[in-house]
Records
---
Amino acid sequence: MIETRYLTKHYKDVVALDNLNMKIEQGQVYGFIGPNGAGKTTTIKILSTLLKPTAGTATVCGYDVVRQGKHIRRHIGYMPDFFGVYEDMKVTEYLSFFAAAYRITGPEREARVKDILELTDLGDKADTFVESLSRGMQQRLGVARVLLHDPEVLLLDEPASGLDPRARIEIRALLKELGKMGKTILISSHILTELAEMCTHVGIIERGRLIAQGPIKEIMKQATRHNVIHVTLADRAAEAVEFLNSHEAVTQARQEDGGVIAVELNGKDSGPALVAELLVKNGYRIESLKRDEASLELAFMHLTKGIVS
């Protein structure tokens, strides 16, 4: 459904995308993550035909983004991170306006708007003025708008940006439902816990390059290759870090927020028992100790260096 080959974009002297190779199959919910400035929005704008690449190719639904943009726009729904709304227009009027822009007419338009309002749980807001909606409801309306022409592919740039916890949960539930309907979804987000819950695949981009992509479980497994133990001590944390770094079984020990010590061991067989033994034998009092569990956040931190273009 979506494929880029050596996709490159320059902004004068800045390389926003550097030979990006990405492939998203039909029906995948693909989480696109990376540091600020990594190239996520640039990629999505190219795929939505709003921006031309400097070099390389990109196709959506088999159509080339440069030569066949008109065809692509019939098959995609693009939602930017922030979008404007028309004043003095009710929700139903707003959706009817965009349905008309997609050349949906007559009774079909009315039925389509009604169905989309039901799908996005906006039925009780049908006669509400758009500008009076909360940020979360406006984001939900944005998703409703891009669904009007029943696109095969959804390109969503930070759809949960700026939302409160309840609104994020509601948007996540909606996107899960769209995934179950068979939509191919590319979604960029900084909220990695939510991506882990709703995505089937993930791609990690840094400095314009895709450094990892694949099924989300496989990406998360990469983090488990690092044998990391988290320890909280009653006292003497800084001294304990120095002691642990001097031991041959420890690759690195560092103190994190809240006084927690992250201990990375160089052997797969060694684990919490070894760390506990080392600390207790040397007079340190342990309050808590656990091994890092595989997570998308952990994989992201291990695979990226925080470098931007």
---
Amino acid sequence: MGQNLKYFIENYKSLRNVTLCYLYDKTKNKVLIAMKKRGFGVGKLNGIGGKVEKDETITDALIRETKEEIGVDLKDFEKVAVINFYFKNNPSDKNFNQKAHVFMAYKWENEPVETEEMAPQWIDVNSLPLDKMWSDDKYWLPGIISGKKYIASFLFNDDNSIAEMDLREVKNL
């Protein structure tokens, strides 16, 4: 772990909790990713999720965000990663530094639909469009699809490239 990332981890302990969910259809070997249509990360492909509201559990936020963003009711899901994201020049009026609670969903009700927030699409797990996703995804997304679990921290430069990272595989979360 580099000195800059170590500094952020030691000095930014109060991260905003967010959720991130990937629907996984094992029978078709496809994962659902969506293009962010507005707000933070606009234009990037990503999982489904968002901020944990006051007095809301991580699980409640996961279920609510998935319903709001793609119209899906989650029925079976598993926490597969906790990833801290730090941004070198985080604007003081926006808290982009965040702790993402990442889930894989295996059962749900309703078909995913496009909303004002997200445009979902099914992608073959062997053809992930990593060049259209956040630069950190290539280090952990293929692993969680194959059943691994991670605890990680990423520090981003101003251009959203990775300045430093710490990625650790774990047995349980």
---
Amino acid sequence: MSNDVAPAEKKDPIKIHREGTALSDTGKHEDAIEKFLEASELYEKAGNLFDASYTLFKAAECSFLTKDFKTAVERFLKAADISLEIGYDRFGIGALEYARDCYKALKKTKKAAALEKKIKELKEKL
């Protein structure tokens, strides 16, 4: 008798990323979030920090679209931190702008103003 158990399949972050994009494009944002978060984690483990940041950004964007602003702001801020750390300043600034918009939606005007100041300072350095 043979053993029909297959070896553990290595997950492909690119495939999972594409699945997230397809789900997002068809309006299935909740499902897309899970795919983007999984891809982000896999990219990060592989040392691909840009795509880790990008897929985290996409998960945040889906959270924003479902009006889960609290979760979205956390993810946008983390995506911005990663991007700014590795020198993708313009992308990081974009994530910060979305985070600011989340704070505005949450009526957290002081946090939105502080982020606006940070965005302005970063733009001046570019």
---
Amino acid sequence: MQRITFVFGLALLLTACGDTSVAPVDKACTGLSDDKMIWVPGGSFVMGDDPHYPEEGPPRTVSVKGFWIDAHEVTNAQFAAFVKATGYKTMAERDPPKLAGAPPEMLAPGSAVFNTPSQEDPSWWRWVPGAQWRHPSGPQESIAGRDHEPVVQIAWQDAEAYARWAGKQLPSEEQWEYAARAGAAALPEPLDAKGQPQANYYQGVFPVKNLNTDGYIGRAPVGCFKPNAFGLYDMIGNVWEWTSAPGSRADASEPVNVIKGGSYLCAANYCARYRPAARQFQERGLGTDHIGFRLVDAAKAGPAS
């Protein structure tokens, strides 16, 4: 695992765009319990898209069996329960590899944090010592009082460890996209008939101004927007989500996996990856302040008919 490549300017290829200010005070937006899962009946659908992003196509017909999936992204409270029970340390909390030429800040545990580019600092991402799931953008940010927000700064290995503890699995890309589409045509932008945002993403012109029309500059507590037709919350926007699907990226120094759904940093004028077909390829050992996950339970029987 070579997180050092991030700092040396190799493309991370995440759809980040926007301001990373903290969201409003956390509150539960739904009455859902943390362990609520939704049954998604099996079926066939056209997976993929293609108009602007070649990695999304070509469209093809895919069939999936029925499965249970978390109603919302795994929250800070859920991940904290896992850590309390197991003593698990995330990748961001572990000592990074001591590679020749690494800048001093990368010799200490930390992770990738989005940086709004400026003339003085044109970098989109920076390595922040101390950035981890309890402090997503660094030591100055705490998740205290934000139990209902999705946990972030989660590497693929961290999501896998949580899944084993919970007796569940990361979804396949096919399961994830089928669940996100919920039998409906994908919208070019998640707006209702009155033009109001139906997901947590970046409104405005990136990176100049976030209009904050959806009410959240940063991560929103899970379930603050209407669920899709399957009853699933935040399948697009809020935070990217890990899948079990491996990917391919020429500049990656370690294996990569597919992440889906876009995040609060996606803007219509820049990336528009708040669509079910959107996909990116993320290094397994590196989380960021806008990547989380949800799980499926393939072993659990479906509801009685």
